[in-house]
Design a protein that fits this description.
By secondary structure, the chain is an alpha+beta fold. The chain has one domain: Flavocytochrome C Sulfide Dehydrogenase, Chain A Domain 3, CATH 3.90.760. It is built from three helices and four strands. Strands 1, 2, 3 and 4 form a four-stranded antiparallel sheet that branches. The longest helix has 19 residues. The two termini are about 30 Å apart. The mean pLDDT is about 95. It binds flavin-adenine dinucleotide (FAD).
Length: about 140
Amino acid sequence: MRAGDIAVQTGLATANKRWCEVDFLTFESKAVKNVHVLGDAIQIAPAMPKSGHMANQHGKTCAAAVVSLLMGKEPPKMPLYANTCYSFVTDEDVVHVASVHRYDAEKKTMLTVPGSGGVSARASELEGRYALAWARNIWADTLA
Ligand SMILES: Cc1cc2nc3c(=O)[nH]c(=O)nc-3n(C[C@H](O)[C@H](O)[C@H](O)COP(=O)(O)OP(=O)(O)OC[C@H]3O[C@@H](n4cnc5c(N)ncnc54)[C@H](O)[C@@H]3O)c2cc1C
Protein backbone atom coordinates (compact mmCIF):
# COMPACT_ATOMS: atom_id res chain seq x y z
CA MET A 1 0.00 0.00 0.00
CA ARG A 2 1.14 3.57 -0.66
CA ALA A 3 0.03 7.08 -1.56
CA GLY A 4 -1.16 7.60 -5.14
CA ASP A 5 1.18 7.83 -8.12
CA ILE A 6 0.99 11.61 -8.18
CA ALA A 7 2.51 11.75 -4.66
CA VAL A 8 5.34 9.40 -5.61
CA GLN A 9 6.09 11.07 -8.96
CA THR A 10 6.20 14.57 -7.46
CA GLY A 11 8.57 13.61 -4.63
CA LEU A 12 5.97 14.07 -1.89
CA ALA A 13 6.13 10.42 -0.79
CA THR A 14 9.30 10.62 1.29
CA ALA A 15 8.62 7.86 3.86
CA ASN A 16 9.93 4.72 2.21
CA LYS A 17 8.74 6.22 -1.11
CA ARG A 18 5.23 5.25 0.06
CA TRP A 19 3.75 7.91 2.30
CA CYS A 20 3.96 11.71 2.50
CA GLU A 21 5.61 13.14 5.61
CA VAL A 22 3.84 16.28 6.85
CA ASP A 23 4.05 18.86 9.62
CA PHE A 24 1.08 17.87 11.81
CA LEU A 25 0.37 21.53 12.67
CA THR A 26 -0.26 22.52 9.06
CA PHE A 27 -0.24 19.32 6.96
CA GLU A 28 2.38 21.03 4.80
CA SER A 29 4.62 18.49 3.10
CA LYS A 30 8.07 18.17 4.67
CA ALA A 31 9.46 17.76 1.14
CA VAL A 32 7.63 20.40 -0.90
CA LYS A 33 6.88 23.82 0.57
CA ASN A 34 3.33 25.19 0.23
CA VAL A 35 1.93 21.77 -0.68
CA HIS A 36 -0.42 20.33 1.96
CA VAL A 37 -1.28 16.62 2.04
CA LEU A 38 -4.29 15.08 3.84
CA GLY A 39 -5.87 11.73 4.47
CA ASP A 40 -4.61 8.28 3.68
CA ALA A 41 -1.61 9.59 1.72
CA ILE A 42 0.26 10.85 4.80
CA GLN A 43 2.83 9.08 6.95
CA ILE A 44 0.84 8.70 10.16
CA ALA A 45 2.02 9.27 13.71
CA PRO A 46 2.22 6.13 15.90
CA ALA A 47 -1.20 4.52 16.54
CA MET A 48 -2.96 7.16 14.41
CA PRO A 49 -5.52 5.36 12.25
CA LYS A 50 -6.21 6.03 8.59
CA SER A 51 -9.90 6.65 8.15
CA GLY A 52 -12.44 8.94 6.61
CA HIS A 53 -13.04 10.37 10.09
CA MET A 54 -9.34 11.19 10.48
CA ALA A 55 -9.12 12.63 6.97
CA ASN A 56 -12.02 14.93 7.95
CA GLN A 57 -10.03 16.12 10.99
CA HIS A 58 -6.88 16.61 8.88
CA GLY A 59 -8.90 18.83 6.56
CA LYS A 60 -10.14 21.04 9.40
CA THR A 61 -6.69 21.35 10.99
CA CYS A 62 -5.11 22.14 7.62
CA ALA A 63 -7.77 24.69 6.67
CA ALA A 64 -7.39 26.53 9.99
CA ALA A 65 -3.60 26.52 9.60
CA VAL A 66 -3.70 27.80 6.01
CA VAL A 67 -6.06 30.64 7.02
CA SER A 68 -3.63 31.59 9.83
CA LEU A 69 -0.64 31.46 7.49
CA LEU A 70 -2.39 33.59 4.87
CA MET A 71 -3.06 36.17 7.60
CA GLY A 72 0.60 36.11 8.66
CA LYS A 73 -0.20 34.40 11.97
CA GLU A 74 1.13 31.25 13.64
CA PRO A 75 -1.07 28.18 13.04
CA PRO A 76 -2.97 26.77 16.05
CA LYS A 77 -0.49 24.92 18.27
CA MET A 78 -2.63 22.19 19.85
CA PRO A 79 -4.58 20.27 17.21
CA LEU A 80 -6.68 17.45 18.64
CA TYR A 81 -8.18 14.76 16.44
CA ALA A 82 -10.82 12.21 17.34
CA ASN A 83 -11.48 9.01 15.44
CA THR A 84 -14.34 6.54 15.49
CA CYS A 85 -14.81 3.57 13.19
CA TYR A 86 -17.96 1.45 13.33
CA SER A 87 -18.24 -2.05 11.88
CA PHE A 88 -21.51 -3.87 11.25
CA VAL A 89 -21.11 -7.49 12.34
CA THR A 90 -24.74 -8.30 11.43
CA ASP A 91 -27.25 -6.18 9.54
CA GLU A 92 -28.11 -4.46 12.87
CA ASP A 93 -25.34 -5.11 15.39
CA VAL A 94 -22.26 -2.95 15.47
CA VAL A 95 -18.92 -2.57 17.29
CA HIS A 96 -16.74 0.51 17.39
CA VAL A 97 -13.15 1.54 18.01
CA ALA A 98 -12.41 5.13 19.05
CA SER A 99 -9.29 7.15 19.86
CA VAL A 100 -8.17 10.74 20.48
CA HIS A 101 -4.80 12.14 19.35
CA ARG A 102 -3.13 15.35 20.56
CA TYR A 103 -0.11 17.23 19.15
CA ASP A 104 3.05 16.90 21.25
CA ALA A 105 5.16 20.03 20.70
CA GLU A 106 8.36 18.44 22.01
CA LYS A 107 8.14 15.34 19.81
CA LYS A 108 6.48 17.26 16.94
CA THR A 109 4.05 14.43 16.39
CA MET A 110 0.55 13.33 17.34
CA LEU A 111 0.24 11.11 20.45
CA THR A 112 -2.75 9.11 21.68
CA VAL A 113 -4.36 10.83 24.67
CA PRO A 114 -3.98 8.43 27.63
CA GLY A 115 -7.30 6.90 28.68
CA SER A 116 -9.14 8.17 25.62
CA GLY A 117 -11.20 6.10 23.23
CA GLY A 118 -11.72 2.38 23.54
CA VAL A 119 -13.59 -0.47 21.94
CA SER A 120 -17.07 -1.96 22.35
CA ALA A 121 -17.48 -4.63 25.00
CA ARG A 122 -19.88 -6.41 22.64
CA ALA A 123 -21.81 -5.81 19.46
CA SER A 124 -25.22 -4.20 19.93
CA GLU A 125 -28.20 -2.85 18.06
CA LEU A 126 -27.80 0.47 19.97
CA GLU A 127 -24.35 0.91 18.43
CA GLY A 128 -25.95 0.19 15.07
CA ARG A 129 -28.04 3.33 15.55
CA TYR A 130 -24.95 5.28 16.65
CA ALA A 131 -23.12 4.05 13.53
CA LEU A 132 -25.80 5.33 11.18
CA ALA A 133 -25.96 8.67 13.03
CA TRP A 134 -22.14 8.92 12.79
CA ALA A 135 -22.29 8.16 9.07
CA ARG A 136 -24.96 10.77 8.36
CA ASN A 137 -23.01 13.41 10.29
CA ILE A 138 -19.60 12.70 8.76
CA TRP A 139 -21.04 12.59 5.24
CA ALA A 140 -22.86 15.91 5.80
CA ASP A 141 -19.74 17.49 7.30
CA THR A 142 -17.24 16.17 4.76
CA LEU A 143 -19.27 16.30 1.57
CA ALA A 144 -21.28 19.48 2.20
C1 LIG B 1 -13.24 -1.40 3.00
C2 LIG B 1 -12.97 -0.08 3.70
C3 LIG B 1 -13.79 0.30 4.75
C4 LIG B 1 -13.57 1.50 5.41
N1 LIG B 1 -14.39 1.87 6.45
C5 LIG B 1 -14.23 3.08 7.03
C6 LIG B 1 -15.11 3.52 8.09
O1 LIG B 1 -16.04 2.82 8.50
N2 LIG B 1 -14.91 4.73 8.63
C7 LIG B 1 -13.91 5.54 8.21
O2 LIG B 1 -13.78 6.65 8.74
N3 LIG B 1 -13.04 5.16 7.23
C8 LIG B 1 -13.18 3.95 6.64
N4 LIG B 1 -12.32 3.55 5.64
C9 LIG B 1 -11.17 4.38 5.32
C10 LIG B 1 -11.56 5.55 4.40
O3 LIG B 1 -12.24 5.05 3.27
C11 LIG B 1 -10.28 6.27 3.97
O4 LIG B 1 -9.45 6.53 5.10
C12 LIG B 1 -10.65 7.60 3.31
O5 LIG B 1 -11.42 7.36 2.16
C13 LIG B 1 -9.37 8.37 2.92
O6 LIG B 1 -9.75 9.52 2.21
P1 LIG B 1 -8.72 10.21 1.23
O7 LIG B 1 -9.47 11.38 0.67
O8 LIG B 1 -7.44 10.44 1.93
O9 LIG B 1 -8.40 9.14 0.11
P2 LIG B 1 -9.39 8.48 -1.00
O10 LIG B 1 -10.80 8.34 -0.46
O11 LIG B 1 -8.66 7.24 -1.46
O12 LIG B 1 -9.43 9.56 -2.13
C14 LIG B 1 -8.35 9.82 -3.00
C15 LIG B 1 -8.96 10.21 -4.34
O13 LIG B 1 -7.95 10.76 -5.18
C16 LIG B 1 -8.18 10.29 -6.49
N5 LIG B 1 -6.93 10.45 -7.26
C17 LIG B 1 -5.79 9.71 -7.18
N6 LIG B 1 -4.87 10.18 -8.05
C18 LIG B 1 -5.43 11.25 -8.66
C19 LIG B 1 -4.96 12.16 -9.66
N7 LIG B 1 -3.73 12.07 -10.19
N8 LIG B 1 -5.80 13.12 -10.05
C20 LIG B 1 -7.05 13.24 -9.53
N9 LIG B 1 -7.55 12.41 -8.58
C21 LIG B 1 -6.74 11.43 -8.16
C22 LIG B 1 -8.64 8.85 -6.29
O14 LIG B 1 -9.32 8.35 -7.43
C23 LIG B 1 -9.55 9.00 -5.07
O15 LIG B 1 -10.88 9.31 -5.44
C24 LIG B 1 -12.51 2.34 4.99
C25 LIG B 1 -11.69 1.95 3.91
C26 LIG B 1 -11.91 0.75 3.27
C27 LIG B 1 -11.03 0.37 2.10
